[in-house]
């Protein structure tokens, strides 16, 4: 990266470190921080959508739909999330391939599960066998995003379901008295009012989501954990210009600090938002603000 | 091979008793149920031991965080911040590599690189931090009247803590603490995916479930089995903690007792 980095063997101290930390491989670990942020940026709104759907379904007056919503909330919370991550990555992949198989190869006569193999026709493979490397990586990443969204959608559904029930009953009754249909009551009265009640739970969820991002590693994405293990391992002078002993401990220490900083900043920002939202509300928090002012 | 033989061979496989080789082909449902169940031994071991030992440290940390003296308060605050602010997965990795480097300094740390102790230490500190925060919250919400009544009766020092502060704190914290216990048991599944090696394929339930899913390429059998075991475990925890909750609340009028339920806003 820098001009003085041409012969690392002659360098020492901070100059060596500055060269070492800007090698091509180190740039990929910095990029993978971007992957984590991208995952958070996509997952958070999608999971919120899933959660909203789940909570709305659980409230539905149509019994089977409400059972479905409640089962979605209950099952994901009763089972370790990491089991779901490992499950959905394979299950979603096979599900997509199976659907494409049904559409693209209707006259395929062999069974799809042959012993320990899952066989679909070549056109139904995802991604296609001749696809470029970046397609494979993007597909893997999208599967991971979908998996995260399903699992965290259930957590969000739980929070939103609670928030919907926390909206004062009188508000909904008033809406009914004004002649609103259930649909109108839901969209015009319930949904706008539930966010204040949902925010503490959702901010907690955001923290949990941040702390779940290293699990990307288990889903086969080359994320920061992957690179920390790769780069930290002992290197001999034969394979690299920057030989060093086993430094994985320090790499993971750096990750620890990164996550601590990330959660701390989120905490401060979320506290600000909460203060802004409780301002003037007829709740204990709002009352405390009024007294302090 | 009948199912009873499979259970005899693999029932205690996760702690190294029974058949040495794992099944390699023609996986039967019985084998999957038995081996995954066998792995649950480790999940229960980690969860139970960490919860039990973490309870005492959590009480200490909560008292520390509530203390006036900054020499007690600051370390407790930092302890809670570090363990609650970073992912458990990274903590496992860091601890494993830390123990690995310490091993070269002193042979004493040799045992810490194996999961049964090393991962237990991490889980112990982790749950102590989370429960410590819960207990601290409960400590702050002890009704003022209770403490005034204790003063009026002449309680002070250790007796006041033992008879009034601590039981009230536990009573208030118990529903949230139940939740923490459930999540701790769920977190034990991370152990064998985070650096700590599973020697001789002695792993936990998720390790075996993952083994079967990899071999059969069919996730629809092993993971639901695992889910079943964990739902059962969760119900047992809720039941057990419910009994303790009843005892903690036994002096209260019937209608003011708090019931245990999963709380949406309190989670790890």
Automatic annotation (TrEMBL), chain A:
Sorted UniProt keywords: Membrane, Transmembrane, Transmembrane helix, Transport
GO cellular component: plasma membrane
Keyword set includes Metal-binding: no
InterPro entries, per the entry: ABC_transp_permease_HisMQ, MetI-like, MetI-like_sf
Pfam family, one: BPD_transp_1
Ranges that cross the membrane: 29-50, 71-92, 139-164, 185-209, 249-270
GO BP: any one term: transmembrane transport
Similarity remark: Belongs to the binding-protein-dependent transport system permease family.
Name of the featured protein: Arginine ABC transporter permease protein ArtQ
Species name: Tropicibacter naphthalenivorans
UniProtKB/TrEMBL annotation, chain B:
Gene3D superfamilies: MetI-like (1.10.3720.10)
GO BP, sorted A to Z: amino acid transport
CDD domains registered for this protein in UniProt: TM_PBP2 (cd06261)
Pfam short name (any one): BPD_transp_1
Superkingdom classification of source: Bacteria
GO molecular function: transmembrane transporter activity
Alphabetical list of PANTHER family matching this protein: L-CYSTINE TRANSPORT SYSTEM PERMEASE PROTEIN TCYL, MEMBRANE COMPONENT OF AMINO ACID ABC TRANSPORTER
Protein name from the UniProt record: Histidine transport system permease protein HisM
Classification lineage: Bacteria, Pseudomonadati, Pseudomonadota, Alphaproteobacteria, Rhodobacterales
This protein's encoding gene: hisM
């Amino acid at each position: 990266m820098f001009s003085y980095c041409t012969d690392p063997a002659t360098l020492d101290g901070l100059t060596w470190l500055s060269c070492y930390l800007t090698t091509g491989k180190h740039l990929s670990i910095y990029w993978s921080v971007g992957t984590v942020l991208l995952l958070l940026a996509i997952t958070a709104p999608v999971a919120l959508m899933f959660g909203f759907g789940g909570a709305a379904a659980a409230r539905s007056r149509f019994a089977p739909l409400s059972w479905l919503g409640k089962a979605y909330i209950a099952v994901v919370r009763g089972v370790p999330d990491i089991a779901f991550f490992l499950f959905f990555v394979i299950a979603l992949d096979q599900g997509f391939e199976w659907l494409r198989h049904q559409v693209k190869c209707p006259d395929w006569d062999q069974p799809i599960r042959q012993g320990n193999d899952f066989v679909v026709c070549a056109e139904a493979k995802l991604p296609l066998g001749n696809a470029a490397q970046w397609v494979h990586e993007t597909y893997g990443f999208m599967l991971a995003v979908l998996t995260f969204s399903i699992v965290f959608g259930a957590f969000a559904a739980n929070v939103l379901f609670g928030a919907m029930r926390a909206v004062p009953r009188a508000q909904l009754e008033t809406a009914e008295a004004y002649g609103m249909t259930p649909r109108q009551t839901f969209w015009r009265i319930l949904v706008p009012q539930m966010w204040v009640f949902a925010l503490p739970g959702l901010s907690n969820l955001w923290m949990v989501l941040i702390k779940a991002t290293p699990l990307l590693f288990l889903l086969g994405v080359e994320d920061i954990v992957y690179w920390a293990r790769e780069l930290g391992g002992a290197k001999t002078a034969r394979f690299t210009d920057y030989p060093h002993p086993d430094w994985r401990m320090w790499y993971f220490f750096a990750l620890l600090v990164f996550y601590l900083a990330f959660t701390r900043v989120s905490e401060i920002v979320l506290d600000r938002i909460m203060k802004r939202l409780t301002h003037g509300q007829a709740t204990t928090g709002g009352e405390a603000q009024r007294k302090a002012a | 091979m009948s199912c009873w033989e499979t259970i005899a061979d693999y029932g205690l496989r996760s702690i190294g008793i029974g058949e040495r080789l794992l099944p390699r082909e023609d996986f039967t449902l019985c084998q999957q149920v038995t081996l995954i169940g066998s792995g649950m031994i480790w999940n229960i071991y980690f969860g139970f031991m960490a919860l039990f030992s973490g309870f005492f440290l959590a009480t200490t940390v909560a008292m520390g965080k509530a203390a006036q003296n900054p020499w007690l308060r600051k370390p407790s605050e930092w302890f809670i911040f570090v363990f609650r602010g970073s992912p458990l997965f990274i903590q496992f990795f860091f601890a494993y590599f830390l123990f690995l480097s310490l091993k070269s300094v002193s042979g004493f740390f040799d045992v810490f690189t194996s999961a049964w102790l090393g991962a237990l230490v991490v889980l112990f500190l982790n749950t102590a931090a989370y429960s410590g925060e819960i207990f601290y919250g409960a400590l702050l919400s002890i009704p003022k009247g209770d403490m005034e009544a204790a003063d009026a009766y002449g309680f002070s020092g250790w007796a006041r803590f033992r008879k009034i502060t601590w039981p009230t704190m536990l009573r208030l914290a118990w529903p949230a603490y139940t939740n923490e216990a459930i999540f701790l048991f769920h977190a034990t599944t991370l152990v064998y995916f985070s650096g700590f090696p599973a020697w001789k394929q002695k792993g936990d339930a998720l390790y075996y479930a993952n083994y079967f899913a990899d071999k059969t390429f069919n996730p629809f059998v092993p993971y639901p089995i695992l889910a079943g075991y964990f739902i059962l475990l969760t119900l047992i925890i809720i039941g057990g903690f419910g009994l303790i909750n009843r005892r903690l609340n036994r002096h209260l009028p019937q209608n003011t007792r708090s019931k245990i339920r999963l709380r949406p806003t309190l989670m790890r």
